[in-house]
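If you are new to this repository, start here. Below is one unmodified record pulled from the training split, so you can see the exact layout before writing a loader.
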Amino acid sequence: MGCGRVSAPEAPGEKRSERSGARLWIIAACLLYLLWPGAARAQFFSPGELARDHAELEGDENCSACHSAARRIEDSKCLNCHADVARTVREKTGLHGKTYAGKPCASCHIDHRGRDHELVRWDPGTFDHRQTGWPLGGAHARVECAECHDSKNERNQPTFIGLETECASCHEDVHKGRFGLECQSCHDDVNWKSLDLRSFNHDQSRYPLLGKHRQVKCAECHGEPPKYAPLAFQACGDCHEDPHKGRLGVECQSCHDESSWKKQLMQRAKHPGVSLSGGHAQVDCKKCHDRGNVRPPSKGERCVSCHEPVHEAKFGPDCARCHTDVRWLGLPEALGRRVHQQTQYPLTGQHERTPCQSCHSPKLPAARRFRQLDFDACMDCHRDVHKGQFKDRQAGRCESCHTVAGFAPSTFDGEDHATTKFALEGGHRAAPCQSCHTIPAPRLDWQLKQQECADCHENPHGSRFAREMQNGSCGSCHDIVAWDVPKIAHETWPLTGKHRGLDCNQCHDATEADQKAGAGPSYRLAPRECEGCHSDVHLGQFQLSEPERGCADCHTAAAFKLPDYDHEAGTGYALDGKHSELRCAQCHPSAALAGGQSTTLWRLPYDDCKDCHADPHAESGAASQAGGAQ
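And here is the target side for that same chain:
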């Protein structure tokens, strides 16, 4: 046999010792991982600390917020947090949507290099703004970044993203939108005050150029250097001297227009002060202008200067408020209603909507149509629909029941009804008028002779209470406040205990005969014994065996359950000793009877000890005899 080297057999505990040591190292490493502070523990598997902006994501449990399962950085996860950047990428605007479109986020923004590492590194002084799609030219090139980029993103952090390119997004529109949004049509970004007005349309301004104004050079109105705002232009006198020295007012347009100052266009319809249309159109100028055409008349300009007032009502001297020189009579209805408040009969309520001709009838002579009208009483205009029923009540004046706000509802209320032969009390106060005054043609009949309960209300009791009806009618039992509130003393069968809280119909219900006859509940001959209303829960135990007992022997009206029971007096069996501690159900069990009913057995057929207890001595004696036999 060849000589081979045979290794010595391994000691039995050697491998077990090595495995135990490995386990200890693993346990120690885990304990060290758990006991390390949060920041240190986060670096156990991490390549390095996150930057300050991402510090809230520190920890192995947050890796999936940026990394995929393959430990790659997903752009979609970056854009989920940076929604403002995602918007520019999606819309293909700005730096990320144009210059860096399609470029991975991690190619520029590298993390895990410590808290002080800057994720965004750029030099504002050397940054080429053309990369954003908005080159900075002219005056914009001298503007500091923070003057435009002063907003914050959804994470409440300063951002350079989201600015608009329209002028109005940064600059106030001093023209308030009158010239549109294309500021470049007049201005450039080199010098805002340097204007190119060759294409400017003056019709867009608040003062369109007409007539001779179209030939005027800009500098004649706007000066040199030009001034565009504020500039007065509301009146001709803002630019032109008034040769009349204000004698003809400031409305130059009444005689002149933009086509020619020298051409006078004086029209009677545009006469300042007083219109010369209608009747005044026939009057010669000299008849009024006694001091020359350019000076006001010596009599003045009011109507009363020439015309004598004809109204008795105090409408004032300003006749033009109601009349015009075109139509002196036949005034508009709205005007007549407005001045009617100054007459002796102001219009209120329904009268405000009444047609004028209803009172001022065209059939009346003109001298009486608006004057000498009777209006002291309603009957002067309205007919008496009650046909004299109330002639003895306040002289039949309508105001005692009605107002001008409307004929209905009437102001006649419960207190007024108390002045009649039938005062309204209790439930009658809530009854609608037509429930008693039922004659409809043409108006309700307000004078009624029926005043007894039975005249209006049906008697559901028939002849049962004839005696009471003769003595006090329905009111002997019922209260006028409500029909279901009784006034019964219940003295023949006093209500005590639980009976006090019962509704009447729980005992006095309508019998089958009453129901067939359409009568109400039977209040007489109601049962007075317990058995007449209550079922026997004991199923005849106390009636079928001696001594016979009634409900009142054990129970009271206060409560069905017995608060205390004298067992010895009631049964002849005193509960002494341990028996006094027993519950009733331990001796009185529940028994099921034929028909599915069950009840507690209160009357027991036994009362000896052996009926309930086993004899402990019988078994002991037998055992003793057995021992003696052995």
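Two things worth knowing about this chain: The first helix runs from residue 14 to 35. Residues 461-544 form one domain.
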